[in-house]
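Hi L.,

You mentioned the student needs an example of a multi-chain input paired with its predicted structure. This one should do, with 555 residues in total across all chains.
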Amino acid sequence: MNKNLLLFIFFIGISSLLCSVKFKPNDEIHLFSIPENWPIPVYDFNKMPLDSKIIDLGRHLFYDPILSLDNSVSCSSCHLSFTAFTHVDHALSHGIGDRIGTRNSPVLINLAWNKHFMWDGAINHLEVQAIAPITHPSEMGEDLLNVLAKLKQSKKYPSKFFHAFGDSTISSKQLLLALTQFQLTLVSANSKYDKVKRKEEIFTKQEKSGYKLFQKHCASCHTEPLLTSGEFENNGLPIDNTLNDLGRGKITQNPSDNYTFKVPTLRNIEFSFPYMHDGRFKSLNEVIEHYSSGISHTPNLSSKLKNGINLTSNQKVDIIAFLLTLTDKEFLFNPDYQFTRD
Amino acid sequence: MKWLLFPILFITLSGIRAQTTKDLIIEFSIPPVDKTIELEKLRFYITNIQLYSEDSIVFEELESVHLIDLMESQNSISVAFPETVGFNSIHFNLGVDSLTNVSGIYSGDLDPTKGMYWAWQSGYINFKLEGKHPLSQARNQSFQFHLGGYLPGQYSIQQLKFATNNSLKLNVQFDINSFFETIDFSKENTIMSPGENAVKLSEKIVTYFKLNE
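Structure written out for the whole complex:
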């Protein structure tokens, strides 16, 4: 009897020990893991490992218009989860008071691998990125100190910040780290393309032909597996004189960077229209048409595109068929990325 | 036994403190400014403080970042350094280095709410000077110099070196009047972003920091 009881206690002890030991790594793997054969992320996770409580706080903040001047606009107003976190159907993003910005909002995908942020790389680190939209007069038009004051006065946030960071100051660093941690979890690596790479599925004949063409003509900039090189290139868009956007050149003030923009990832491209930094193209057909017959010889045009890309109409259809395999439904409809009440 | 711990701890801690460090105070100031000029903001970063003996470095402050705000009388820095260290020159930077500029979010003096961070383009403002000058052609006769930049060709951080003989109190004066005399306010009154102009002005400004002994 006594022996059995001891044994029982022993087992309980061992199993709870095992559970608690296992829990931590499991939790971390769930929060973020590097997909097979992907490069090491650019973001340094050693500085502050992901924490589910901080991520949860970041998720609430991402969806909360409290970050904007008139409490009308949240990050998600321009970055909608169902469209890979872009502003669907708006060429130029809309902010508070319906002021129109000068650029199309990009997707928020695999940000842990981004070297530069914004179309021109004006922002150099994910942690400081949110300062830009929060304080931009035509985006959220708010002042950081004012946002912090509003958060402190709110019913919800003092306890959430305390829960996440173990102190109740509500600092700008905490606010920005929370937004960062949530956005780091936005990893898309489960499209048909990824499954084919992992040998779990196979391409159709058409997709396969499209993939070959893609590797030949597109992958030097839209590099696998992230589908972006992260570099700045001029892909031959005619200059829009109303915006006259110099792109990277405005930041470096180096004329050889004029009209170059950050190569965007093509993951979930089916859902992230309109396309390009100013949202000039509404469909993938228009994009392919641009590469095959619309290349404009503006300053610093990439040498890879000097002669355009010659494609038959069948080949165009094939490339699009391949691009559609980059859709990751699990990413787009991941409940962990969506608005939550509690 | 526990009661023993306290005195021991106390003795060792106070021993460490008393025996090993001294404080070096660096104070920043400006002379009185001509009445026709109105100063509104004068803030800058002092970073990477190092003490030298002859040509070798003998002490380097850790996490060495100090925001000086001469309009808000936040004008002095206290540097604790080992008592055994002797020095005959001090080096520090006017501005924030490029590594810090690309390493994400910080708190303390580097907190982005301090008004020394550019929002639309990552990077710290190293030196901020704002006010009104009768000759300025800008709106309200204002002038605004926001100097910073860390990219190649825009690197505007500056280094200051002063000879000093183990002095524990240094008074560094920014000779703002002489600086103003070199500026043609009718043309040169606004710099708000990194670039060639910011670099040039930063290089000029640093030459007006003098040690007052």
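You could point out the following to them. The beta strands of chain A are 232-233, 261-262. Chain A has 14 helices and two strands.

Best wishes,
N.
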